[in-house]
Design a protein that fits this description.
Length: about 450
């Protein structure tokens, strides 16, 4: 099924100094340079779309709790590069000082919920943190929603992350308690010139006017452009896609690639195959633009799909390959590493045809053979059998690992073995005499017309 990254959501619109509630569109993707009309291009699952900012656009960050938001002290810390995505950046962070005048806004809180929040805190997934000044509002029977000034709270003993924090905010003289959702937008703290092509992912809220998306909110997530940080930009470029196993061997791979290949990985755990379908355009970051061609892309999904069916998994793998192939790069499929014998053995498929989850031998019995059937339909894809590398070392470097209950590979020795096989395969792919210049076509714009999009019910 073709995924379209159009999520109908309740986004906040700004009329004068106050919020107004309205159902509009929300999109996500990588920020690319503008082409003609608009402030920038947003490239995501929807393809490319020009974005124009309204004059009073509220711009800020999209923040996860683990990224250390401390509202009481008005501090925010964001990772500049996470999950070993860019070796030269390491674990650098961005520290943001929030203004003293901060508000909690939620468009749907009703009178009964507001009354309950006076004594008991809860998290609100649609909540927004907004820089002031704003006009306070508490819900009425006719007009739900809260705009409350944050005045204090209890950090819950975890000042670094805010996970247990309960905050207090005042709306028209009445105090409510709230905690932050897993993901929260902190808006109104940045100017438009803070939005940098290739260096930011963005979640935008607004509406369509013809072929242009008019944005009232922009929530940024730093994702530094790896190509700006390559020491030698003339070397071939390699993107490697994978889950936490790839995060583990990334440091060893970077060492092997030094001076030979400019390698990088996405800032996130790439998760299941469906994640590549939806987020690849952001990971590839303008591969079709001058000087940004990708030469090699390796990809793996398995652990996150360990409970899926053959039909679903193969369909997702096929669509992921289609997304990656648009770059014209040499492709390497990486088989999924084993689940060690410390886990209970994998059973047969259930009645719905789903695999038994993360259990010993599940990759050998199901996931890898299923994926390989799809890969064989594409004879131009190289195969790196990581599963076999781990099996071959069962009496050697991987001996203790095989007896354990941890799918991850600790320490440099095991991760070196995993990385070395991928590095060798990448060099073979780059030496392929049949390599052709990539077409580097931009992703097809699957965004519907303004008429279709605005009439869709969310």
């Amino acid at each position: 099924m073709k995924h379209i990254a159009i999520l109908l959501a309740l986004v906040t619109l700004f009329a004068g100094s106050s919020f107004a509630q309205k159902k509009e569109l929300s999109l996500g993707g990588i920020v690319l340079p503008a082409k003609g009309e608009g402030s920038f291009i947003l490239r995501g699952e929807h393809g490319d779309i020009a974005v124009k900012l309204v004059d009073d656009c509220k711009i800020g960050y999209d923040v996860r709790l683990g990224e250390r938001i401390d509202l009481l002290n008005r501090k925010l810390r964001l990772p500049l590069a996470a999950n070993n995505s860019i070796p030269s950046l390491g674990r650098q962070t961005i520290d943001v000082e929030l203004p003293d005048d901060m508000y909690f806004y939620h468009p749907k809180i009703k009178v009964a919920q507001f009354d309950s929040a006076k004594t008991s805190a809860r998290s609100y997934s649609d909540g927004v943190l907004l820089a002031g000044p704003q006009t306070q509002h508490k819900p009425t029977t006719d007009e739900p929603g809260v705009m409350a000034k944050i005045v204090g709270g209890d950090q819950g003993g975890k000042k670094s992350s805010g996970r247990s924090s309960i905050y207090e905010a005042v709306a028209e003289g009445e105090t409510l308690k709230f905690s932050l959702a897993l993901t929260t937008q902190v808006l109104g703290i940045l100017e438009a010139d803070a939005i940098k092509p290739f260096d930011h992912w963005a979640k935008i809220g607004g509406h369509l006017e013809g072929d242009v998306f008019v944005a009232k909110t922009v929530a940024l997530k730093p994702c530094p452009d790896p190509q700006k940080h390559f020491a030698n930009k003339d070397l071939p470029k390699m993107l490697f896609i994978g889950d936490s196993i790839s995060i583990g061997y990334s440091k060893e791979l970077y060492k092997l690639c030094a001076g030979k290949i400019n390698a990088y990985r996405p800032m996130e755990n790439c998760g299941p195959a469906a994640g590549t379908i939806s987020r690849f355009n952001a990971w590839a970051a303008g591969h079709d633009l001058p000087g940004r061609k990708l030469d090699v892309i390796s990809f793996n999904f398995g652990h996150w799909n360990a409970s899926t069916s053959k039909k679903r998994y193969q369909a997702d793998v096929e669509q992921a390959i289609a997304a990656i192939k648009q770059t014209g790069a040499e492709l390497i499929w990486v088989s999924t590493a084993p689940v060690p014998n410390g886990f209970e053995p994998a059973g047969e498929l259930d009645e719905a045809g789903n695999a038994s989850g993360r259990k010993a031998s599940v990759m050998k019995k199901h996931l890898n053979p299923w994926a390989l059937e799809v890969v064989k339909r594409h004879p131009d894809i190289w195969v790196y059998d990581m599963w076999q590398v781990v099996k071959d070392g069962e009496d050697g470097v991987f001996k203790e690992w095989w007896a354990g209950r941890n799918v991850h590979f600790g320490g440099p020795d095991m991760n070196y073995e995993l990385a070395k096989g991928l590095f060798d395969m990448a060099q073979k792919a780059l030496a392929n005499p049949k390599r052709k210049d990539a077409k580097n076509l931009p992703p097809k714009n699957n965004f519907p017309s303004a008429k279709t999009a605005s009439s869709t019910k969310g």
